[in-house]
Structures are given as C-alpha cells and as structure tokens.
Amino acid sequence: MLSIRAGKLLLLALFVVALAGCVMDPSGGRRGGREANDTPPTVKDCPTSSPSQAVEALLTRSCKGCHSTQQPVLATSVQIKAAVHKIVDAVNADRMPPGKPLSAEEKKILADWRATETASKIQLMLAQPTYWNDIKPIIDTKCTWCHSAAAKPEDKRAPFLTTYAGLIAQADDVQDEVADDKMPPRDRTPRLSNEESKLLDQWFATGMPEGLPPAPIDPTKPIFYKDTIQSLLTRSCIGCHGSGGKTPLLEGYPAARLASTSALAAVKAGRMPPSGVLSEDALVAFEAWVTAGTPYDSAGTTPPVEEPKNPPRGPAPADCLE
Q1: What is d(CA 18, CA 33) in angstroms, rounded to the nearest whole number?
Q2: d(CA 78, CA 188)
Q3: pLDDT digits over 155-167, tens only?
Q4: SS3 (DSSP) at 12
Q5: Contact of 294 with 228, CB cutoff 8 Å
Q6: DSSP one-letter code for 43
Q7: What is the rounded CA–CA span in Å between residue 48 and residue 23?
C-alpha cells in the first residue's frame, strides 16, 4: 500500500502531467502548426490558465513553429506583445496559420488579449506626464521669466524654452540644472515644488512625450469659469499666482473673480503671463468672461466670494498685475 507521502507525490505528478497537456504543442514541434485531425485543448480544458497562458499555448501550437525565426519573430513575450496587432489581424483574415484557420473560440482568445494589451498601453500613456498637460505650465511659470523672448531685457537669458522643440533641444541641460537645484535660481520665487520636480523627472524618464495641445476656445460661445477659465488659469498663471504664491492669487473661483479685472489689464498690456501673450482665442475668452460678470457655470451657480486664506509666498513684481 502506498504511504500517504507517496500518494501525495503521485497526485502532484498527475497534476503536472495534466497541466503540461494544456501547453505542450500536440504537433510534436512540426513546422506549420497542428495537423487537421488534432484536437487542441481550449481555455475550458485549462481552468487554471490565465489569459496570458492561454495566448502563449495558442501561439505555441499555431505560430511559433514558423515564427521562431520568420518575421515577425515570436520567441519572447516582448516580441509577442509588440506584434499583437499583426497577429490578430492576420488570424482574423484567415491568413495565419497558413491553410489552418483558427476556430472562433481561438480567435476570441486573441481578440480579448489584444483588447487587454491596448487598454494597458492607453492607461500607461494617460498616467505619463506630457508636455502640454503637465510640463508646459511648469516651464511657463517657473522658467520663462528669463528664458523667453518676451522676458524683460535685464532678465532675458538664452536658451528660450517657450516651445516644445525649444525645450527638447535643451533637455539634457534643463534636466541637469533641475537635478542640481540650480534652476530656477534661488533668488527667484516661487521655485519648483517637490511635485513639479517629480513630474519633470518622470517626463524626462518616459521619453518626454508631447501629448496634445488644449482644444481651441470658441469665444463666440458663453464663457464660464468652470468650463474654460479654470483650465486657462491653471496653464498660464497658477504656477506663480497659486495658493501661497505671488499676489494677487488666482487659484480657485473666489480668488480669480476678485482679481479678474486687474488680471485682464495685465494680460492685455502684455505683462502677463511672463512666457508671452495669450493666444488670441484665450484672450478674447478671458475678456468675454470678465465682461459677462465672471459667471461660474451655465447653471448660474455663484460660489461665495471670500478673501484667499493662504498668505502670499513673496512680494509680487512691481509691474505684475497693477
């Protein structure tokens, strides 16, 4: 009679053999995939398999016989993921495997795999900082006091960093200066916050993606703080005039509404933002918002106007908004 220990080992061995049957190539490694009379195991036959295991088993049976050397090479998981669209398109068109189309269930396995891979890539892209969404507001409010053609003559310094191309051309130097805490200069306030420094580091590390510029503002439509002005101020003003920053503060509706008239005057005079004048559509929209009485939203909501509670972090430049 088998001992309890021997019985457990026998059961374990049987389980391993059964699991191996789910991933082994039933064609015996023959090039060109399985024979017509082969009955491949499906996902239902492998209840412990994850989707990635099911895909790996399917590609092993049907593709790797040829594509271990032929293009696209599918020898590693990286190569397989890089070719996901080519694989699924060829399978759906019944071009692959040659003369042995996959079943509807097998095609669904690959289609689900592509959807998962695509969703993962999109999620990763959305999580990455981009120039337009994250980096330009930092550069415009922390660097272009000096590094802009619109800077004051006594402050103006090359290189200019007001465009994506200009920043990319100086990426190594900018990264080094920020890492060494040399820029922005210590006598310039406000300086980079920890969050801004981390965003810049992450952006450099992920290949400095540009992203998409903000959609143009339609100044012919009613302009509201919630829908338009808030994002405009975030991109162009909050880096300096945010909570705890230089006066007047523009972060939040109450503060923006209180300072709206002086802010508009500074923008129209070309003094703000320091990176240069706003785009024509943004300037028209901002003026239309002030003229209309600084409405909060289309529903007519008017949050209470309160004095900002956070004290300014330093004196405003003499010609800042006045």
Answers
A1: 21
A2: 46
A3: 788 888 878 898 9
A4: helix
A5: no
A6: G
A7: 12
Helices (H), the chain: 4-23, 51-62, 64-67, 77-82, 84-92, 104-127, 136-142, 164-169, 171-179, 194-205, 230-236, 238-241, 253-258, 260-268, 280-291
pLDDT of residue 146: 81
| Cβ(31)–Cβ(66) below 8 Å | yes
- The pLDDT tens digits for 4-45 are 444 444 444 444 444 444 433 333 333 333 344 444 444 344
In angstroms, the CA 145 to CA 316 distance is: 13
- Give the Cα separation of 212 and 248 in Å (integer): 30
Q: Which two tokens stand for residue 127?
A: 């999580």
Q: What pTM value is reported for the model?
A: 0.46
Phi-psi region of 58 (alpha: psi -120 to 50; beta: other; left: phi over 0): alpha
Q: How far apart are CA 19 and CA 49, in angstroms?
A: 9
| CA of residue 195 relative to chain centroid, distance | 16
Residues 6+ away with beta carbon under 8 Å from 201: 178, 179
Closest CA to 297 of 202, 225, 236: 225
CA dihedral 56, 60, 64, 65 (to 10 degrees): 180
- Terminal-to-terminal C-alpha distance of the chain: 97
